[in-house]
Specification:
Blueprint (H helix, E strand, L loop, with lengths): L11 H6 L83 H13 L3 E7 L5 E9 L5 E5 L5 H4 L4 E5 L5 E11 L4 E6 L19 E9 L3 E11 L9 E4 L10 E3 L5 E9 L5 E6 L1 H8 L17 H6 L1 H11 L3 H14 L4 H13 L3 H14 L4 H16 L7 H12 L4 H13 L3 H14 L4 H13 L3 H14 L4 H13 L3 H14 L6 H11 L3 H16 L2
Antiparallel strand pairs: 1-2, 1-4, 2-3, 3-6, 4-5, 5-6, 7-8, 7-10, 8-9, 9-12, 10-11, 11-12
Helix pairs in contact: 6-7, 7-8, 8-9, 9-10, 10-11, 11-12, 12-13, 12-14, 13-14, 14-15, 15-16, 16-17, 17-18, 18-19
Keywords: Repeat, Signal, TPR repeat
InterPro entries: Peptidase_S1_PA, TPR-like_helical_dom_sf, TPR_rpt, Ycf3
Pfam families: TPR_16, TPR_8, Trypsin_2
Length: about 550
C-alpha cells in the first residue's frame, strides 16, 4: 500500500537533541565519553515545520488506496500458554507437571468460553484474503460480534464471503450482516450455524480503575489462545472512550473479546499495535449490548456493506482540510481541538490520529502524542513515517522519566525497514543501539545515515563516540573533526574533541576545546572540571584553579 504522508521529517538538530547518550565516567581510562544533550531551550514541545508537509489531498491521485487489515497474530509473538485445553495436542517434550492455580484458572475459563470464540477471514471472489480477525457468538442462533474494522469501507466492495472457523476446526460461512458501524466499532454478522453458545455481555463495567481481564484469539494454527491482561479506561484527552489493554503475551487480534474472570465479555479489541511490547486498544461492549437489546435490523447481504467513509472521503472532508490548514498556520491548540473532533468522527483513520498526535507533540504533550501514534500505526502498520513518529513520541516520554521499554527501538527498526531512506530514523536507531551497547549495529546504522545525509554533524559526532568505544581513536578523531567542520557551534563535539586531545597527550589543545565547550554551554556538567585538569597538566596552575572553582560553584547550584 502507498502510504499517505501527512507528516514531515523533523529538523535533524532537534531530533538528535532528544537522543539520550551514555553518561560520562571520568574515573575510567581512556576518557572517551559523552554526556546527555539537553532538550532545545524554550521549546514547548519539539519544533515541527508543518509548512514542509505534503498536502494529503494531492496523494489521492492515481491508483486506489487499500488499507492493511490485521493479519493473524504471529506465533513468534504468542508463546504457548499452559495448560493445553482438552483435546489439544501437547507438543513433544512437554514435561508432565502439576498445574498451578493460575493454570487451572485459565483452563477452567478456556473450557467455559472455547465454543463461543471463532476466527473470521474475509475473502474476495478470487479467493484472496482481504482481512482476518476474531469474533464471538452473542446469541444462541449464531449472531457473531466482531470489530467493524474487518469490514472497512475501503475493502467492502471487494468482499465476496466470510468464513467462520470454530475452536474444533469446523468451517462455516457468514450469511449476512445486521450492523457494520465504524463509529461505534460494532459489526453484527449472522453465521450459518444457528445452534451456538453465546458469550454473556457485561455492559456498564467501570473501567476507571485498572482491572484484571483476559484476551482471546482464534488461530487456525494454534486454536484458542488465551492470556491474562489488564484493562483500563484511557483518561487522556485523546483517549476518547477507548480502553487500554496490556499484558505480557499478545494473543488478541481485531475483534478479540476481552472477558472478566467470570467469562463475561466486557470489551472488544479494535486496534492492535503490532509490537512485541504489545498494547491493544479496545471498546467497551456497551454499544454491542445496546444493539442486541433494541432488536435486530433486517438481515442484509454482504454486498450492502457500507462503502464509505474511505480514505479519500476523510481527506476530502472540509473539516479535515480546515484542521490541516490550521496546523500549517501553527495554530496548534485550535488544530488539536479540530483533530479531536475528527478522531471521534473517523476513529479508524490513521491520518486523523497521526495529525492529532503531531499536534500534541508540538504542544509538548508526549503521553498524548504517544497515545495517538500508537493508534496510527495500529491502523496503518505499513506507514513507516508513523513508526518514525511513534518512536520519537516514545523518546520524548522517556525523557520525562517514563518506564524504559523496547517500544522506541522496535518502532525505529520498523521505520527504517519501511522507509530505508529515512536518515533521521537511522540516526535515532543508531543512538538507541549505542545505549544498548550494540556498537557494531550502531556503526552500521551510522554508515547508512552518512550515506543518506553526509552533512549531519550529529551523525559524525555519534560515529566518533562509537569509534572511541571501539578504541579506534584515529577514526574517532576523523569523525569529530568532520562534525566540528559541519557545525562549529556543537558544544558536545568540542567536549569530545577535548577528551581525544587529552588522551593523545596534548593538554593545551584539549584546554582550547574545553574552553569552546563552556563558551557554547556554560552549564556543561564536566567541561569545567576537565578544563581545570587540562590547564594543570599544561602548567597553567592559576587558570586551572579558576576553572575548578567555577566547576565547584556550578556543581553546588545543582
Amino acid at each position: 500500500m502507498r502510504t499517505l504522508c501527512l507528516l514531515s521529517l523533523l529538523l535533524p538538530a532537534f531530533l538528535c537533541a532528544q537522543v539520550p547518550l551514555p553518561k560520562p565516567d571520568l574515573s575510567k581510562a581512556p576518557p572517551v565519553i559523552s554526556v546527555e544533550p539537553d532538550l532545545p531551550e524554550g521549546a514547548a514541545g519539539f519544533p515541527v515545520d508543518v509548512n514542509n508537509y505534503e498536502n494529503p489531498l494531492l496523494l489521492f491521485q492515481g491508483a486506489k488506496q487499500e488499507i492493511p487489515m490485521a493479519d493473524e497474530p504471529s506465533p513468534d509473538l504468542l508463546p504457548p500458554i499452559a495448560p493445553y485445553l482438552p483435546g489439544e495436542k501437547v507438543p513433544e517434550g512437554t514435561p508432565d507437571k502439576p498445574l498451578t492455580p493460575d493454570e487451572l484458572r485459565l483452563r477452567s475459563l478456556g473450557i467455559k468460553i472455547v465454543s463461543s470464540v471463532v476466527g473470521l477471514r474475509v475473502w474476495d471472489s478470487f479467493g484472496t484474503q482481504l482481512a482476518s480477525g476474531v469474533g464471538c457468538y452473542v446469541s444462541a442462533d449464531g449472531v457473531i460480534l466482531t470489530d467493524s474494522g474487518l469490514l472497512h469501507p475501503e475493502i467492502a466492495e471487494k468482499i465476496d464471503y466470510i468464513t467462520v472457523t470454530g475452536a474444533d476446526g469446523t468451517n462455516t460461512k457468514v450469511s449476512g450482516f445486521y450492523v457494520a458501524d465504524l463509529t461505534s466499532g460494532i459489526a453484527l454478522l449472522q453465521g450459518e450455524d444457528t445452534d451456538t453458545t453465546p458469550l454473556e455481555l457485561k455492559a456498564d463495567t467501570d473501567f476507571r480503575q485498572e482491572q484484571a481481564s483476559h484476551v482471546l484469539a482464534m488461530s487456525e494454527k494454534r486454536g484458542l489462545v488465551l492470556a491474562d491482561a489488564t484493562v483500563q479506561m484511557d483518561g487522556a484527552l485523546t483517549g476518547l472512550g477507548w480502553l487500554n489493554v496490556r499484558g505480557k503475551d499478545s494473543p488478541g487480534g481485531v475483534g478479540s473479546p476481552v472477558v472478566n474472570d467470570a467469562g463475561q465479555m466486557i470489551g472488544i479489541v479494535a486496534m492492535q499495535v503490532p509490537l512485541k511490547s504489545w498494547m491493544n486498544f479496545a471498546l467497551p461492549c456497551d454499544a454491542a449490548a445496546f444493539e442486541l437489546r433494541k432488536g435486530r435490523a433486517p438481515l442484509k447481504p454482504l454486498t450492502s456493506l457500507p462503502k464509505s467513509p474511505k480514505l479519500r472521503d476523510v481527506a476530502n472532508d472540509p473539516e479535515f482540510v480546515r484542521a490541516f490548514e490550521t496546523l500549517q498556520k501553527r495554530r496548534v491548540e485550535s488544530a488539536m481541538r479540530q483533530f479531536v473532533t475528527l478522531a471521534r468522527k473517523y476513529p479508524r483513520s490513521a491520518e486523523c490520529w497521526a495529525l492529532l498526535g503531531l499536534s500534541a507533540s508540538y504542544l509538548g504533550a508526549a503521553p498524548e502524542a504517544l497515545n495517538c501514534q500508537r493508534k496510527a500505526v495500529a491502523l496503518d502498520p505499513k506507514a513507516g513515517l508513523y513508526w518514525h513518529q511513534l518512536a520519537f513520541a516514545k523518546l520524548r516520554e522517556k525523557a520525562g522519566m517514563a518506564d524504559d521499554t523496547t517500544e522506541d527501538k522496535e518502532a525505529l527498526e520498523l521505520a527504517t525497514e519501511q522507509r530505508p531512506n529515512d536518515a533521521l530514523a537511522w540516526l535515532l536507531l543508531a543512538s538507541r543501539r549505542v545505549r544498548d551497547g550494540d556498537l557494531g549495529s550502531a556503526d552500521d546504522a551510522l554508515k547508512r545515515v552518512m550515506l543518506l545525509a553526509p552533512n549531519y554533524a550529529q551523525a559524525h559526532y555519534l560515529s566518533a563516540y562509537v569509534k572511541g568505544r571501539q578504541k579506534d581513536y584515529e577514526g574517532a578523531q576523523t569523525a569529530i573533526t568532520q562534525s566540528l567542520k559541519l557545525n562549529p557551534g556543537y558544544s558536545e563535539a568540542w567536549y569530545y574533541q577535548g577528551l581525544l586531545l587529552d588522551k593523545n597527550g596534548d593538554p593545551n589543545e584539549a584546554a582550547k576545546a574545553y574552553r569552546n565547550t563552556v563558551r557554547l554551554r556554560p552549564t556543561h556538567p564536566n567541561a569545567w572540571k576537565n578544563l581545570a585538569y587540562a590547564l594543570k597538566k599544561g602548567g597553567k596552575t592559576s587558570e586551572a584553579r579558576e576553572a575548578f572553582e567555577e566547576h565547584t560553584k556550578r556543581s553546588a547550584k545543582k
